Amino acid sequence: MSPLRTRVTTRAMGEADGAEVLAIYAEGIAGPNATFETSVPEWDAWDQAHLATARLVAVDRDAPGRGIVGWAACSPVSERCAYAGVAEVSVYVAGRARGQGVGGALLAALVTASESSGVWTLQAGVLSENVASLALHERHGFRRVGVRERLGQRDGRWRDVVLLERRSAVAGL
């Protein structure tokens, strides 16, 4: 069997991918460092909370079923028209595929897709303990803007969130 990074491709996410996307999200929620969320929403709620463009899945062509091993999507940061080109990034990788380049493939493709749809600023809020996610974002042109200290609680413990952003060199100029 070839290494995962040579078997994975990214493609646009469709409604039929919803169950696998939410299952991977559930894995992230179950871990201690991915999100403040504690429950998985229904597909309709997830769908409404994310932009229709710049939604991707990573697919392992040798995996059974649909083979989805990760996803990335953007959410609007505000409904105000001035922020139409600013989006928040989410990237989630299935536990069995972590550390194998899936997150990097997704984030690179998400940057391209978001720029194609007119997004000039991507931002991410990453729990400070999630060093893998921080490194991933920085490898893809995100810079640390600051730390939002004690922003929220997870499991009764206050957590800091590192705010990162990436400005496009092509969109919004």
Question: What is the topology?
Answer:
Layout: H1 4-7, E1 8-12, H2 18-30, H3 43-49, E2 55-60, E3 68-76, E4 86-93, H4 102-116, E5 121-127, H5 131-139, E6 143-154, E7 157-167
Parallel strand pairs: 4-5
Antiparallel strand pairs: 1-2, 2-3, 3-4, 5-7, 6-7
Descriptive notes:
There is one protein chain. By secondary structure, the chain is α+β, with helices and mostly antiparallel strands. It has a single domain (about 5-165), classed as 3-Layer(aba) Sandwich (Aminopeptidase), CATH 3.40.630.30. The chain is about 30% helix and about 35% strand. The chain has 5 helices and 7 strands, in the order H-E-H-H-E-E-E-H-E-H-E-E. The protein has helices at about 5, 20-30, 45-50, 100-115, 130-140; strands spanning about 10, 55-60, 70-75, 85-95, 120-125, 145-155, 155-165. A 7-stranded mixed β-sheet has the order 1-2-3-4-5-7-6. The longest helix is centred in the middle third of the chain and has 15 residues, at about 100-115. The protein is globular, with a radius of gyration of 16 Å.
Would you identify the CATH architecture? 3-Layer(aba) Sandwich
Let me know the average pLDDT: 92
Reported for the largest beta sheet, the result is:
7 strands, mixed
Q: How many discrete structural domains?
A: 1
Nearest-angstrom radius of gyration? 16 Å
Assign the CATH topology: Aminopeptidase
> What general form does the structure show?
globular
Which strand order spans the largest sheet, edge to edge or round the barrel? Answer: 1-2-3-4-5-7-6
Structural class: alpha+beta
Range of strand content: 25-35%
Number of contiguous helices = 5
